[in-house]
# Entry
Amino acid sequence: MPRNFIDLDTFDPAELRSLVQCAKELKNNILSAKDSLAGKTLAMIFEKPSTRTRISFDVAMSKLGGRAVALSPSDLQLGRGESLSDTAQVLSRYVDAIVLRTSRHNSLEELAAASSIPVINGLTDRTHPCQLLADILTFEEHVGPISGKKITWLGDGNNVAATWIQAAAQFNFDMQIGCPDSLRPQKKIVDWARSMGATIEITEDPIAAVKGAHCVVTDTWVSLSDEQSKSIDLLKPFQVDSKKMEAAADGAIFMHCLPAKRGQEVTEEVLEGAASVIFDEAENRLHVQKAILLWCLAPDGLF
Ligand code: CP
Ligand code: NVA
# Structure
């Protein structure tokens, strides 16, 4: 069975913790994995644009001694109707792992089901697990252990919000979500996290949502997979601004997976302010990507 990296909720918490630890050790040169993936090839299929995910996986492969091939559906017969299943079976004969970014989570599951090599979620309409491991690493570098802390999500209850909720259950922290009622995070994921014992509070009051938060996090109001435009007016009260950062705990940090729309989901002042750790977060994608690749391809002795 290939070691797929598809969703945080299927992991043992200790395994996720070991992935974050591995990323941290790689970043701090405690662990050297140079040439661990020599001779390995990663295929990356991006149905949607990407800066961080695409480049960090590409660089991670080359730093580990392997190589990556970036493809869009129009480069592949997939774009002309070849099935995902056939594509997966063919790629499994050529490369060692596949990253897929798609606006249909079911496509990722279909690809993984037909593939005999590891498949990695490079973002879907439902979740973005690579991002969350980088976010946990970033939070812990700036604030300390995330266990027992309070994280506030403000804005659209989108794929990244859903993955924060999964992470709350797996890394043992509380989530306070401030969002319009019509843009709440996926119920199934909220129910799962609560069933695992996580505290997930959802409110339409943005100031109540940020009270006591050690980190305020948001994301774009228009995601890659949003087909219909949603009411931006509904989201305006949830913009992260200085007033909301002041209502959070002392020393609270601000996070955003990027790309950001300055002046929309977050003010320029907060994005550029002292509490913002957005570029550390972006950098940590690279260290986490290396850890995920090492976990998936499991060279002896690392996991
Ligand atoms: N945060 C993130 O996944 O960015 P990209 O869309 O640039 O990959
Ligand atoms: N929610 C955003 C995240 C981008 C990294 C999207 O899906 O487009």
Notes: Residues 86 and 114 are 8 Å apart (CA to CA). The mean pLDDT is 96. The first helix runs from residue 13 to 27. The beta strands are 41-46, 67-71, 97-101, 119-121, 150-154, 174-178, 200-203, 215-218, 253-256.
